[in-house]
Amino acid sequence: MKNYLLLFSFLLILLGCKNDIDTIIKEDNLNSVQNEFAIIIHGGAGTILKKNMSDEKEAAYKAKLEEAIKVGHTILKNGGTSAEAVMKTIQVMEESPLFNAGKGAVFTHEETNELDASFMDGKTLNAGAVAGVTNVKSPIELAIKVMTDSDHVMLSGKGASVFAKEKGLEIVDPSYFYTERRFKSLQRIKNRNKTELDHDDKKAAFYDADIKNAKFGTVGCVALDKNGNIAAGTSTGGMTNKRWGRIGDAPIIGSGTYANNLTCGVSSTGWGEYFIRSQVAYDISAQMEYQQKTLKEATKDVIQNKLTKLGGTGGVVALDKKGNMSFEFNTAGMYRASMDEKGNLVVKIYKE
Questions:
Q1: What is the largest CA-CA distance in the chain?
Q2: Judging by beta carbons within 10 Å of its beta carbon (0-12, 13-18, 19+), is residue 322 exposed, middle or buried?
Q3: Beta strands at 154-156 and 127-133: parallel, antiparallel or unpaired
Q4: Three-state SS for 263?
Q5: Which of 201, 203, 206, 254 has the fewest CB neighbours in a 10 Å radius?
Q6: Side-chain half-sphere of 254: how many Cα atoms within 13 Å?
Q7: Active-site hit among 89, 108, 134, 218
Q8: pTM recorded for the entire structure
Q9: How many helices (H) and strands (E) does the chain have?
């Protein structure tokens, strides 16, 4: 009788273990549900408040974000590469005067437009970037061309323009990038003449609120294609009234852009000096790789904790190898949108 009881108890234990194993498998399967493809974008982060936005302007931003992301989503849905999706999506925003990239780029102190962009391929960890470009219509296309058609990662200024011409990219007159709204913003800042460095506490911080708190309209995109490859890209006109050939985080791999198929892809927007010092984009990937954090945990820690403590403002859009997506920002708003494999579209502006 005692033997039967022992056997019965043993069977119960085995059955319980099986149930536990089945539960673990089910939970693991739920956690590994993957979007076959997905795409996420931003159009800048900053002091974006509902009270300061007209209905017409809000509708215009949302319409352009939707237009841009649908271009990339269609490419991915049809089996296209994440690289193509990122480039074509960003180009829609580069050609819109709404954003601080391409056509809508802000002006430097010298009243010129100097454009920066970067791209990274998560499969190969190859990357390309350009800085201080003044006459290339699509900086993101040029950044990709640097990656694919040169031995370098970053080109700048006149050299980048020469390379673009040699590779047959569209060259435009610098006046193409002029918009009245951006030019007037520069004049207001210059007239107040408050764009000066704080030498007392050695911080590279601008006093002028129009610079510190303005909408940083940098654009960016991260995409995951059906082959499991992640790509990320970022394009910007930089900071209004910038001087001395200033370059922000957008063209710097690891700061403004990063992609790794093992972890995630990231595109940043915000106060570039702080994103450079924090290596924001790479830090998110590193936390996932070395600390096994989820995408949401990593983006939240980097933006809400590390960047905020340093004094930086801005945000990121990020997407991991399973197609999970994250918007994370410490500002009042961020122009942003996402689409998954089912076509579920999210378009937002304000903090919610």
A1: 98
A2: middle
A3: parallel
A4: coil
A5: 201
A6: 8
A7: 218
A8: 0.86
A9: 11, 14
Residue with tokens 């019965």: 8
Distance separating alpha carbons of residues 208 and 196, to the nearest angstrom: 8
- Count of alpha carbons within 13 Å of 212, Cβ hemisphere only? 13
| 8/157 Cα distance (integer angstroms) | 79
Q: For residues 316 and 41, give the distance between their C-alpha atoms in angstroms, rounded to a whole number.
A: 9
* Closest among 46, 40, 38 to 349, alpha carbons compared: 46
In whole angstroms, give the CA distance from residue 183 to residue 140: 23
Token representation of residue 18: 């099986």
Closest CA to 215 of 80, 52, 59: 52
Cα distance between residue 274 and residue 252, in whole Å: 12
Looking at residue 171, the DSSP 8-state letter turns out to be: B
Verify whether residue 294 is a known catalytic residue.
no
What tokens appear for 37 in the block? 């493809």
pLDDT tens over the chain, length 352 residues = 545 545 445 444 444 544 443 433 333 333 444 899 999 999 998 878 888 889 999 999 999 999 999 999 999 999 999 999 999 999 999 999 999 999 999 999 999 999 999 999 999 999 999 999 999 999 999 999 999 999 999 999 999 999 999 999 999 999 999 999 999 989 988 887 544 433 333 343 344 444 444 446 799 999 999 999 999 999 999 999 999 999 999 999 999 999 999 999 999 999 999 999 999 999 999 999 999 999 999 999 999 999 999 999 999 999 999 999 999 999 999 999 999 999 999 999 998 7
